[in-house]
Amino acid sequence: MSVGLIWGHPSLRLHNEAMNPKHESEELMNEMLPVAKRMLREYGEFFPYGGYMKPSGEMVHVGAKDPETDRPKSKELIAILQGLFQEMARNKQCKAVAIVYDVIIPLPKSNRRGSAIQVCLEHAGNYSAEVFIPYQIVNREVLFGEIFAQKGSICFLTKLKCRAKPAAAGAKQLSIVGHAVINQPPLNKIRPISPTNPKLPMYQDAAKTFLEQP
User: Fold this and answer.
1) Could you please report the per-residue DSSP string of 58-116?
2) Do 161 and 195 form a contact (C-beta atoms < 8 A)?
3) pLDDT at position 207, please?
C-alpha cells in the first residue's frame, strides 16, 4: 500500500489572526469536509482520507490508496493515514491533523442507526475532538442532520490519554468512539459505535461543549 497527496492543492490561510487550537482544528475540518460532501453527492460514499495543517498554517489534503485493489478496506486506509500522521508528528511537520471517513452510528435522540461523516481532529495544542455529521441521501440529494461531537482520543500530537490501540497494533480498533470494533459494512462504511454504548445519550451535550469551548 502507499499514501500520497491525491486531491487538489495545499490551501494557504488568508489572514494573520491569532487562532487557538480549537479554531485551527475547526478551520482544518472545514477545509476537509467539501471532499466528503462532493463524493457523497456523486457516488453515495467515499473512502477515508485526511489532511493536516503545517506549522505555517498551510493545509494539505492527503489520501491513502492500495494499488492492488480499487475497493480497499476502510480500516486499512485509516491505518495508513494514522501511520503517516504519526511520522509527521514525530518530525514536527504538522500542528493539526484530521481523518475523515464514512460511518454508520446509532443516532442521538433516535432509536435508529444512520450514516454520518466522522471527522477525527487533533491539534498539538492539546486539543482533540471527534465530530459526527449525520446525513441521508434522498433522490441523489445529500441532506445533513444536526452535528454532534465528543472529546477525541487520538494521540499523534497531544498528551491526551488514548482509548484505542494505535494503528501499528493491527488497526483492530481506531482511536474513535468507546470500544467499538471496526467492520467492513456495505458501501465501505465503518460501524464505530455500539448501540448499547451507555454514552450515546451524552453525545448531544458533548457537541454543545465542543462548539462552545474557547
Assistant:
1) -EEEEEEE-TT-SS--HHHHHHHHHHHHHHHHHTT--SEEEEEEEEEEEPTTSSSEEEE
2) no
3) 44
List, in order, residues 6 or more apart from 70 with CB less than 8 Å away: none
Weakest mean pLDDT among 70-84, 121-135, 172-186:
172-186
CB atoms within 10 A of CB 94: 24
The three cell numbers locating residue 1: 500500500
> What's the pTM value of the predicted model, to 2 decimals?
0.72
Query: Distance between CA atoms of 152 and 178, rounded to whole angstroms?
Result: 10
Residue with cell 435522540: 109
Encoded amino acid at 82, one letter: Q
- Our CA angle for 36, 42, 45, nearest 5°, is 50
| Rounded Cα distance, 192 and 189, in Å | 9
Q: Which three cell numbers stand for residue 72?
A: 480497499
pLDDT score of 118 more than 80: yes
